[in-house]
Every structure is written in C-alpha cells, then in structure tokens.
C-alpha cells in the first residue's frame, strides 16, 4: 500500500521517502523503525490528501535517524605505497571507500550513500574530492549521489547503469580513467544487477599496489545475489577477478564476512583456511573492526563462488559442471541460516 502510494508521488518526493524508508530499516535501532512507521502513516495521510507539508516532516525524520544511528564498524585508514583507502562504514553493513592519491591529494569516493560522512572525511584529510565511483544503482550504494553532486560542484559521477543518480560518465568494460596518478580500470560484472561495475585501481610506478572495489559482486568469501543475471555471468565475473594479480586488495560493498565464511565452511568442511579465516573474522567483528580487505589470492582459497571448479565444491553441489555448481551453491546460500 505504502509502495503504491509512494509510486504515485512526484519523482523527487518519492525518492526522499524511499531513502528514509531504507535508512529506517537499515539502522540497527528498532526504535527508529518504530518511529518511522508512525511518521510514515502521517506522510501517507498527507500524500493522499495531497496537502503541503511533506518537507518539514521529512527533515525531522532525517534528523531523528541521524541521531540514532551508530556505525557498524570502526573507520580504518589503510596506507599503501602511493594511495590510501579510508573505510567509511555506512547504514547497517555497507562500506563506502575514500580513495586518495597521495602525490596529488586527489580523491574518489566509492558508493557514497551517506554524503555527510563522506564530506567530514574529505575535510579531515584535506583532500580534493573529484570523483564518485558507483558500483551499481541500488539505493544503499548510489542513494547519496544526487546530494553529494549538489554539494561538490563539478564532481564526476561514474557508473555503468542509467538508473544511477547524477551519472555524468557511463563506463563500460575496460574503460580507463585517471584520478591524480591513479589508474582506474572499469570491470563490467553484470549479475547482481545488469549494470554492475567493479573498479580496479593501480598506480603506474614501482609501488605495485593494486586494489579492486567489488560492490555487490564479490564479497569476502561470498558473492552477491543474482537479481538481474545468471550463474554463467557470475562465473565470468569470478574469472575476471581470478585474473587480477594475487596481491590485489579486495574492498567489497558489505560486511557479510562471518555469514559468508560460515556458509563456505558448510560447503568445504575440510578447508582449514576457511576455518581459520572464520575465527579471525568473528574476533574482528567482536572488536567492532572491519574484515576488509581480503586479497585475490585469499579469495581463491576460501571463496566457494571462486572455487566452483574445485572437486570438493562440485561434489558438495552433486555435479561435475562449474556453472551448475555456481547455480546450486548460490541457491543454497539464499536460504542458508
Ligand atoms: Zn546491491
């Protein structure tokens, strides 16, 4: 009922309501969710009566949510040879990443769903934010684009899907862009959504750093749901990641590592590396710390979706075909507790 009502509203207004709805359900505070449903009823009444007064109401609700939200992880600053990655936790389990070129001080932000958190980090580090890298159009990744683009004039917004807000540059597989001295190569990995892009970042010098931002395609020990794609497409995506250098750091879109490793352990109960990583991840989460990044080498050892050609994983799926294995274990994961 609420969804139908929201769909009939003008575009800008319905976007704001969608955003608040998502925030209310993404926050860990059950009080906020309760408050939201009360507020939502008021909104619905006003919308149906077609009266003015939505905007102060939305503003109040936004403040309420902001005050109640607590970050799911501590923010960490990772330093590499020529670039830095600042992890910015958002919503219930999302990650935004501030990527900084140390020599020029230019920066990009990956999936800035909470623009204010991003702008605080930009100020704190005194960097020049020039670019938004969007992995896919889902609200919990692209939902902050419009607001950030308004607040940072001339910012470039990259992505591979017309449904992404404030998009200025549509990219394809192997599109290359530069942020300061960093080279960003776009990897087209459709499946979770049909326009999903991952960003592979290197610096062109002896530092030999490489990083990939994988959104909701590759998670630590897992992969995203197949909302708009097929097992064949996810298999292709995993092969693309598998061809990156082994030391590439993997920064994914959500903190799902413990659940993913539990499932990986279920698929491969004899894999000691999975067990060790699970123990480590549990400890990290108890300490409130992020489990990203992993590396491509590590994913090849612990991620069942990267390992669909392994005899043990195929045996679990009761097939000898890697694509069937991909289909079967993703289906099993969908309902794994
Ligand atoms: Zn998504």
UniProtKB/TrEMBL annotation:
Reaction catalysed by this enzyme: an S-(2-hydroxyacyl)glutathione + H2O = a 2-hydroxy carboxylate + glutathione + H(+)
EC primary class: hydrolase
Entry's Gene Ontology BP terms: methylglyoxal catabolic process to D-lactate via S-lactoyl-glutathione; RNA 3'-end processing
EC number from the UniProt entry: 3.1.2.6
A GO MF label: hydroxyacylglutathione hydrolase activity
Obligatory cofactor(s): Zn(2+)
Keywords: Hydrolase, Metal-binding, Zinc
Residue ranges constituting the Metallo-beta-lactamase domain according to the UniProt record: 93-254
Pathway participation: Secondary metabolite metabolism; methylglyoxal degradation; (R)-lactate from methylglyoxal: step 2/2
SMART domains, per database record: Lactamase_B (SM00849)
A Pfam family per the record: Lactamase_B
Keyword set includes Plastid: no
PANTHER family in the record: BETA LACTAMASE DOMAIN (PTHR11935), TENZING NORGAY, ISOFORM C (PTHR11935:SF94)
Cited HAMAP family: Glyoxalase_2
The family this protein is said to belong to: Belongs to the metallo-beta-lactamase superfamily. Glyoxalase II family.
The protein's name in its UniProt record: hydroxyacylglutathione hydrolase
Record organism: Chrysodeixis includens (Soybean looper)
């Amino acid at each position: 009922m609420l969804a139908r009502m929201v769909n009939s509203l003008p575009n800008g207004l319905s976007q704001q309501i969608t955003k608040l709805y998502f925030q209310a359900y993404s926050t860990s505070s059950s009080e906020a969710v309760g408050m939201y449903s009360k507020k939502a009823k008021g909104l619905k009444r006003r919308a149906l009566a077609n009266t003015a007064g939505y905007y102060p109401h939305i503003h109040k609700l936004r403040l309420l949510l902001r005050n109640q939200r607590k970050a799911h992880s501590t923010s960490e600053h990772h330093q590499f040879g020529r670039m830095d990655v600042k992890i910015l936790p958002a919503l219930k389990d999302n990650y935004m990443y501030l990527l900084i070129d140390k020599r020029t001080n230019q920066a990009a932000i990956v999936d800035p769903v909470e623009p204010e958190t991003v702008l605080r980090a930009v100020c704190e580090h005194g960097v020049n934010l020039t670019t938004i890298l969007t992995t896919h159009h889902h609200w919990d990744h692209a939902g902050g684009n419009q607001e950030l683009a308004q607040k940072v004039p001339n910012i470039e917004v990259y992505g591979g899907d017309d449904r992404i807000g404030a998009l200025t540059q549509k990219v394809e597989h192997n599109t290359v862009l530069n942020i300061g001295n960093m080279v960003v190569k776009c990897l087209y990995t459709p499946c979770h959504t049909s326009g999903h892009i991952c960003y592979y970042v290197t610096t062109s010098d002896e530092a030999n750093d490489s990083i990939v931002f994988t959104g909701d395609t590759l998670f630590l020990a897992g992969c995203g749901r197949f909302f708009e794609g097929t097992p064949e497409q996810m298999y292709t995506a995993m092969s693309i990641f598998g061809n990156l250098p082994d030391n590439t750091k993997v920064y994914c879109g959500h903190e799902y590592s413990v659940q993913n490793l539990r499932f990986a352990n279920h698929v491969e109960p004899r894999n000691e590396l999975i067990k060790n990583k699970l123990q480590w991840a549990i400890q990290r989460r108890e300490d409130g710390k992020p489990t990203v990044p992993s590396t491509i080498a590590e994913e090849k050892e612990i991620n069942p979706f990267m390992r669909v050609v392994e005899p043990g994983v195929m045996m679990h799926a009761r097939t000898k075909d890697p694509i069937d294995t991909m289909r079967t274990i993703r289906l099993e994961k969908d309902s794994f507790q």
